[in-house]
# Entry
Amino acid sequence: MGKLIRRMGPYLLLGLIALLSCGVGGQAAFWLLGSLGDLLRGAGATFLASATGLIGILLIDALVIALVLWGLRDTRVIRYFQTLVVMPLILGFVLGTSLFFGTLGQGLPINGKPLKAVLPVILVKPEPLTGPLFFGAPLTNTMVAMVLVDLVVLGLGLVAARRAGPLPPPVRGLGILVNLFEFLVEALYENLAKVVLGHRARQVFPLVASIFLMVLTANWMGLLPGFDSIGKVEPAHGHGEGYAVIHWGPFTLLTAEPAAAPAEAAGHEAEGHGEPSEAKTEGFVLVPYLRALSTDLNFTIGLALVAVFMVQVWGVRALGPGYFWKFFNVRALRRGFMGVIEFLVSLLELISEVAKVLSFSFRLFGNIFAGHVLLGIMMFLLPLLIPAVFYGLEIFVGLIQAFIFMMLTMVFIALATAGHGGEGHSEGHH
# Structure
């Protein structure tokens, strides 16, 4: 008897999982069919959501029971059972639940209102959290994110510096993160900075590594739960009609339902008015406490100005005051027509140097801001499972953008310091 139970146990367990998945998934499908039926009825179509949903549940459950009974006779079938039946049903349930809480679903009713995903307010400028504080400027959510990014980078650097020694300490807990930090810095220095910057790598690397780590941390921290999703609920002044709110215990939640609710006023015909009056409630929006730092153009422009300024500093250190002749080559005017051409080319160099600030700032800002808008839209449509794909894409984009910012800074410094006193020629002969 015990042997029979051990042999049949896995099959019965799989069958139970499949039946539960079908039942719950069928119920989610039932809800979705009902919402689709409402849409079709609004378009003047006829749709039997209840009958269709019930028949679908019965057919799926019957098919699963038949496959389980077949699997008890042929053990080879059980190897494909999870892949062909259970996993698709579970994924279908997750997608059905996701759509149920998305913009096209019905939403879970809480206090008489459906709880559905909300499309975040898309703003280029950061949202203020307080009144004027710093020289008349308020504290914004990107400022708070910047402080957190600085603390994380400085904390990892300090912990890594304290752990430095001839023998690595045991790896556990925070040590794993610190070891990854050390590996990343060493790989960038040995395999990249030395190749691009040559003998100046040791002096320039602290700058470019700090840029890389700060941008990378800012991009990845912006993907953590809580960013753009936890904050204070305020009236939607200037942000459209806003959304309705749901009070669930101590929490206030927004739901993707318009706050404006038109209603005909009683007795408007008796008063002689030709149009019905409307009773509207004020909508609300979420002002998040934390917003991804790289989605603030102030941060990207400031970082770009620092990078381009340091390019000029290293150019002057390498070539002296004569470095600026490449921007205002007035000496070339003495050589006639070709000298005028060289002077105009030097002005183009100046324009390209200014354009570096725009290129740096808008490349980083555009990629990260567009990525977060895409994530917000995907969560608004399908809150579960599907946004995970775009999260993986944004992790990759955040890494690439940090690497590009660092790499371009190194390349520009290498170009600005080229030809110093014949050092490059003397090194080439060795």
Summary: Residues 10-101 form one domain. Residues 206 and 242 are 46 Å apart (CA to CA). The longest helix spans residues 336-381.
